[in-house]
Amino acid sequence: MTFEANPQGKQVCVVVGVGPGNGAALARRYAREGYAVALLARSTETTEPLAVELGDARAYACDVTDAASVERAFEAIGRELGPAHALVYNAGSGTWGTVEEIAPALLEGAFRVNTLGLLLTAQKVIPQMKAQGGGSIVVIGSTASRRGVARTAAFAPAKAAQKSLAESMARHLWPQRIHVALIIVDGVVDLPRSRAFMKDKPDDFFISPDAVAETAFRLSTQPPSAWSFEVEARPFGETW
Amino acid sequence: MTFEANPQGKQVCVVVGVGPGNGAALARRYAREGYAVALLARSTETTEPLAVELGDARAYACDVTDAASVERAFEAIGRELGPAHALVYNAGSGTWGTVEEIAPALLEGAFRVNTLGLLLTAQKVIPQMKAQGGGSIVVIGSTASRRGVARTAAFAPAKAAQKSLAESMARHLWPQRIHVALIIVDGVVDLPRSRAFMKDKPDDFFISPDAVAETAFRLSTQPPSAWSFEVEARPFGETW
Amino acid sequence: MTFEANPQGKQVCVVVGVGPGNGAALARRYAREGYAVALLARSTETTEPLAVELGDARAYACDVTDAASVERAFEAIGRELGPAHALVYNAGSGTWGTVEEIAPALLEGAFRVNTLGLLLTAQKVIPQMKAQGGGSIVVIGSTASRRGVARTAAFAPAKAAQKSLAESMARHLWPQRIHVALIIVDGVVDLPRSRAFMKDKPDDFFISPDAVAETAFRLSTQPPSAWSFEVEARPFGETW
Amino acid sequence: MTFEANPQGKQVCVVVGVGPGNGAALARRYAREGYAVALLARSTETTEPLAVELGDARAYACDVTDAASVERAFEAIGRELGPAHALVYNAGSGTWGTVEEIAPALLEGAFRVNTLGLLLTAQKVIPQMKAQGGGSIVVIGSTASRRGVARTAAFAPAKAAQKSLAESMARHLWPQRIHVALIIVDGVVDLPRSRAFMKDKPDDFFISPDAVAETAFRLSTQPPSAWSFEVEARPFGETW
To answer: Which terminus of chain A is more solvent-facing, meaning fewer CB atoms within 10 Å of its CB: N or C?
Structure first.
């Protein structure tokens, strides 16, 4: 069986949530290792050029909180690239506010993007991975998943739910050779908009998206004799 | 100012999620200590008789996942009983299933009942408590909030999100003298339907709803010099 | 069987580590509830007058890090007051320093006082409690047991070991009706020496020893249907 | 400056606790990557032949619980191989028993091997690493560090203390470019003596020492923009 956007039949990696930071770095990392990559974002405006740059890659518009949109995207991925061998879930959102400040819709929206979307996309790839005898699902989480502080009343519950779902998935799927893992991003990712807010910080204050991508790729290729579930990505100078 | 259903001007406790188990025991415990009690459940079928039994109490129909319904219930509580001094959040749900088995709507539903409802009801009582110089919000959580296992793919994320929200609330509200606390129920609550499923278990296998209510009431009255956030309610014979 | 220092045959509580703070408050709390109390400290200089004040109480010199000293103290307690029904372990120490600053002897000393002493004293009372059909062991822990920070290189490992031992004990002893619990003291206890260092802090910055004692006593008398293992004692205004 | 046992001036890795399992695999992994390796064990009986096999390596007899022995070993390492750039702490012990069964000396012995030895050896290499502008310290921990169960009354407290010390070290040393990390070994390592006890288990039940060594080496070479502290090494089929 051949796939039009993956003529060499490379293993397929689906990166969900491709913006200019971790998402693009993840896509580049897996592509460099020989994966055909599906790039999912709400619009394909920035992912189309990235797909062209990467070669065996294609951009898909997908709203991860909408089951029908997820359905359409994965149907197209399966047809054009083939079944997924790796899923990297990088969709997320980061509203700040205390319990007194946040609108309930913000809490619900954060949950839908971080957790519901993980379930919807995971349910698409799990049967494909089982059919292939294994695979990996790497979730880009956050230190907010470990604790809620005053101003993360909307964000922390969403990340905690995401972590809990990932853990439930790991306990169920590891014995079936699907490696579910969670990266705890603990620090500020190096993005144009982070730099704009934090002009006084030195370069090494920031987490490099390439380093996050490296961590994710290592998790996707760990030997099954010693898998990790939860791994921090934290700059050496961060206070924790 | 006097209230028709609270003529003596007792302190008011709102119990959210009153069924035959913890909810009824909580209502009785706070009533016994001199609180006027608002009983919230989806229907008032079983809470009306309980309100009559308790005296200074009233039953309210409320769907905690619906902002308008919460709005109506708390408007009525404020008018009939007065501003809340204690909120006990006992609404919850417990679907079982792995990531491969659960419908996405189950995950979302569990989140809405356990977490969104906590936000909606807390946002109603926080201003009232601040106006009174303090108060307490006790959340009836679960050991599932601490970890996701294979068959809690829908339930654990919801409870983890609930715990995270409660923690965020605690960090924000404690300094304002509002004691937010979480009870980790770790075991099977003694209910007719639990007994029906587990006929071979001795009495002391089960968690008594009265003991959960006792724990909640103690949290509501802890001295502010030594507050607890997270407290287990676990039978002595439970494996953990 | 009668005991010279406990003529009415009251239940016996052994408080290990009685100084002017939590220890004295613990002793007073249990005495007030009708316990005969054994007061253990390295010297009996301050505990003798406390024993006289409390009535059915007696002071014992004990170095908890020395098995022979523990042996002598518990032999005397058993003879003079009777078998223990409650043990409150309040011995502890709090050296500050980073890994580069601490002498290895400080790490070892902290371990011996916080953890080895808990084992030595627990091993004395467990058979007594089993013979009575139950009992309680409450350990006064610290937030340092949950995490090591830069300047707790000696203290945090000792408290982490203490918590781990308490947890192991709980899992083994709960089914035998011995309630092992841990209080996480998270803040500065109100002591003359704390006040001397923190003269600008308001009264409600401090944890009242009476509030810690109240928490301990509640744990000793929780119904076995809903026991707690780990309970925080944290002032409402503390940052955590 | 040249070193007799490291004539090419390779970076030096000190592996503490070299037996037939993780220790030997660790030594091989770092040697393969171009490190000169110091092999520490109580006796040099099995490490001498390994040193010969590895080439730029040397065996040292060292009792990690004895400050003078540690002093002698590191003096010799510094003289013969040069200052350490990596330390892998694999010394450990695994007595089983409940609080009622263990002799206090077992608790203390476990603490000394797992925690005191880590402090003693870390204090030797930290100044060397600072002088070189950085380094890495990888501790081989255990899932027992996360919780104490009934039969780990001696082992779990020692591993919890070790983890706490490692965390304190990490928070202090990361900003100085020394990467302290902890591997949570969660499963049975593939050793002749494990196999003898578990003859019915398939090969993939066991953790391969090579996989642990791979994880350790990856930690030693992580980019400082995204360091991890705590990483599990758990077989895909393990129940957790």
So the answer is: N
